[in-house]
Amino acid sequence: MELLDKIGSYCLHTPWLYALLVLIAAPVAGALLTGIDRKLTARMQGRMGPPLLQPFYDTVKLFCKSPMVLHRPQLIYATLHLVFMMAALLLLAQGRDLLMVLFVQAFSVICLVLGGMSVRSPYSWIGSQRKIMQMLGVEPVFLLMIVALYLRDGSFLGSDLFAKGQPLLPSMPLLFLAFLCAVAIEFEKSPFDLASSHHAHQEIVKGVTLEYSGPFLGLIEIAHFYEIAFFFGLMMAFWHTNIIIGFLLASAGMTFMTILDNSFARLTPHWMLRFMWTVPLSMALANLIWLWVK
Amino acid sequence: MSKAISKSPWVVHFNCNSCNGCDIEFLACLTPTYDVERFGVLHVGNPKHADVLVVTGSVNLRNRHVLKNVYDQMPDPKVVVAMGICPATGGIFADCYNVVGGVGSVIPVDVHVPGCPPRPEAMMDGIIEAVGILEKKRKGEAVDPPLLPVKTVKGPEAPPVTPEMAAKIAAAKAAAEAKKAAEKEN
Ligand code: SF4
User: Which of A65-74, A164-173, A218-227, B59-68 has the weakest average pLDDT?
Assistant: First the structure.
C-alpha cells in the first residue's frame, strides 16, 4: 500500500509522467463512456446494442483501412484538431489558466471547421457552417462560466480553483444547467446534433467529417474521445472537493445527455442559436449577477 | 487488428434499380426486432466511411457508373453484398431493355443473398458472411468467388394423373355443367 502511494505521488509530481498518464487515460475513458452511451441508447430503444468495447473496435478498424486523402491540408487540420484537443485537456489537468484552456479547445474545433471547409463537398460545407453556429451558441456560456469562477475565487487559474475547499455546484447551479446544454451541443446530441451526428448519418452524411476516411477519420474519433474526457473532467470539477461525488455528478450529467439524445428530434440550427442565446445564457447571467451581488 | 475489422463492419446501402422490397427488408434489420447493431454494424450514408457495400436491385445503363463510383470511393479492404435476386442476375427485371444484368457485371461481388426479397435474418447472415471475407481480405488471403443463386422460375413438374383422379375430375366437370344448366332454366 505504501509503495502504491509512493508510486502515485511520484506520478503526480513528475510533470512529464503525469502528462503521459493523462494523455493515455483520457481517450480510454472517453471511448468507454461512448460505449456505455451506445449501450444505454440501445437499451432505451429496446435493443441489445453493440458490445461495450465497440468504440475501441471502431477506432482500431479505422486505422486498418487504407489511407485515402483529397489533399494534404485536410490531414494537417485533422492532426491539429487532435493536438489542440490534447493540449486543452493537458492544460486543464495541470490547472493552468482556464481562459487559455477555453481558447485552445475552441481552436481545436476551428481546425475541424477549416478541414471541413477545405474540401469542395457541399455537405461538408453545410456541416462546417453548422459547427460555427454551434460555437456561437456555446462559447458565451463557457466564457460566462469562467467569469463566474473569477468572481467567486478572484483568479483564472485552475489550480487556485482546486485549492479552495468549497464545491462549485452550490454557488453556481444555474450555470451548471447552462453548461450541460453547451456540452450536449459539443457532444452532438439531439436536439443539437446538427454538424455531424453519430446515430443518424443520413441528413447531411456526417457533415464535417464527410471527406475524411480510414486513419484520418480515426484521428478525429480519438479527438472526440479526448473531448468527452475533457468535458467529463469539467463536470467533475463542479464538485472538486470529493472525487466520488464529482464522479457521480459527471455520470449523472452524461446520463442526462443520453436521455436528452433519445427523447428529442433534431431541430434547426437557427432554433438552436435562439435557444442558446435565450434560456441557457440568461440562466448563466442570472447566476453571474447573483454571485456578484453576494 | 483483423479482429477489430470483423467486429465493426460499417455498411453503406446503395439502391440500384430495386423495387424497394429489398430496401424495406434491409432497413428492418436495424429495428429492435433484429438489431443488427449488436454485431457492430453501423448504417452509414457515406461510402468513404464504409467497409461493406450492400447493393439492392439490378444494374441498368444509367446507374452502373454511379455504382462503380460508389465502389471506388470506399477505402480497402471492402466487400460487396448483393441483396436479393435482382443484383444476382437481374431478377424479374432481367429482360428489360435498359437492364445490363446483375451487379457482378460492374463490380466484384463477394456474397449473394438469395430471395425476393430475402428475409432480414438471411440479410444479417449475408453481412456476417461478408465480415469473414473482409477479415480474409485484410490478411491478404485469397477468397473464392461466390456461387450465383440457382434460378428456379418454373415450379416442380405436375404429378401424373391417376385413374381415380381422372374420374374425380370428370365428376366435378359434370357437376359444374349440371349446375350451369340448372341456372339457365331458372
Ligand atoms: S429481389 Fe425482389 S424484392 Fe428485391 S429488389 Fe428485386 S424484385 Fe424487389
Answer: A164-173
- The finding on whether B91 has its CB within 6 A of some atom of ligand 1 is yes
Nearest-CA distance from B13 to chain A in Å?
A: 11
- The mean pLDDT of B66-77, rounded to a whole number, is 90
Pick from B13, B44, B41: which is nearest to B26 by CA? B13
SS (HEC) of A79-128: HHHHHHHHHHHHHHHCCCEHHHHHHHHHHHHHHHHHHHHCCCCHHHHHHH
Cell of B66: 454511379
Nearest CB to B40: which of A54, A210, A214?
A: A54
Report the 10 Å Cβ neighbour count for B50: 25
Question: Residue A196's closest CA among A249, A266, A251, A244?
Answer: A266
Give the angle B148-B152-B153 at the CA atoms, nearest 5°: 125
Write the pLDDT tens digit of every residue in A39-51.
998 888 888 888 8
Q: Do B38 and A54 touch (CB under 8 A)?
A: no
The DSSP bridge partners found for residue B55 are: B14, B82
A181, A280 contact by CB (below 8 A): yes
Domains of chain B: 2-139 (3.40.50.12280)
In this structure, which amino acid lies at residue A78? A
Nearest to A47 among B4, B37, B51 (CB): B37
| pLDDT tens-place string over residues B14-61 | 988 888 888 999 888 888 888 888 888 888 888 888 889 999 988 888
Domain ranges of chain A: 68-293
With cell 429495428, the residue in question is: B31
Chain B residues interacting with chain A (CB cutoff of 8 angstroms) = 1-5, 7-8, 10, 32, 35, 37-40, 42-46, 48-49, 51, 75-77, 138
Strands B99-101, B59-60: pairing kind: antiparallel
Q: pTM for this structure?
A: 0.83
Q: Are A225 and A235 in contact (CB under 8 A)?
A: no
Burial class (CB within 10 angstroms; exposed 0-12, middle 13-18, buried 19+) of B155: exposed
According to DSSP, residue A157 is labeled B
DSSP A233-279: HHHHHTTTT-HHHHHHHHHHHHHHHHHHHHH-----HHHHHHHHHHH
